[in-house]
Amino acid sequence: VEHCTQIPVHPRHPYVGDLVYTSFSGSHQDAIKKAFAARQEGEIWDMPYLPIDPKDLGRSYDAVIRVNSQSGKGGIAYLLETEYGLELPRRLQIEFSQVVQRVMDDAGTELTAADLYAIFEREYGIGDAAVSVVQPQMTELAGGVMKLSAEVVLGGWFGHVQGEGNGPIDAFVRALSARLGQEVRVLDYHEHAIGGGADARAVA
């Protein structure tokens, strides 16, 4: 139609506009994210702020949620989960949304899922060789106690750590606390798989 008439279709035009199924508002995004998570395959379409299933009109869900300065933690978490399989716990959603908001305040532009993932990697040192655990070895002792031994790279510091605890995480925290000479605490822990089958990866 645009090609024939040389008249652009308004982005919010019903059914066909580029942004007609797109939400930028934080509260709308949070409602859509929760509804998608609760919806079962084959159920009658009944979604907040999406009266029509975009796929029924040949559209995809890719642009349902986009992130700009109006967006909240729900939209950010939705994009990271759908595009990269990262399920952010609520406390991390709140913390990371503040990081993203500062970036958007400086840049003043919309952020894609790739942009968000790059910010996430940079903020939390994902894939950063400066933060890594090398060759961890676990040994189960009597009474279910776990003993951990590993080499740790933390910033410019490199050293051997060793500790015991009631599980791998507890053993590592105790080992790191003893090596650094200060208390290390785990405030929250969440783990899930990315993908399925034998090639599935875990993220924590």
TrEMBL record:
<keyword id="KW-0808">Transferase</keyword>
<dbReference type="GO" id="GO:0003852">
    <property type="term" value="F:2-isopropylmalate synthase activity"/>
</dbReference>
<feature type="domain" description="2-isopropylmalate synthase LeuA allosteric (dimerisation)">
    <location>
        <begin position="110"/>
        <end position="203"/>
    </location>
</feature>
<dbReference type="Pfam" id="PF22615">
    <property type="entry name" value="IPMS_D2"/>
</dbReference>
<protein>
    <recommendedName>
        <fullName>2-isopropylmalate synthase</fullName>
        <ecNumber>2.3.3.13</ecNumber>
    </recommendedName>
</protein>
<dbReference type="GO" id="GO:0009098">
    <property type="term" value="P:L-leucine biosynthetic process"/>
</dbReference>
<dbReference type="InterPro" id="IPR013709">
    <property type="entry name" value="2-isopropylmalate_synth_dimer"/>
</dbReference>
<dbReference type="InterPro" id="IPR054692">
    <property type="entry name" value="LeuA-like_post-cat"/>
</dbReference>
<dbReference type="Pfam" id="PF08502">
    <property type="entry name" value="LeuA_dimer"/>
</dbReference>
<dbReference type="InterPro" id="IPR036230">
    <property type="entry name" value="LeuA_allosteric_dom_sf"/>
</dbReference>
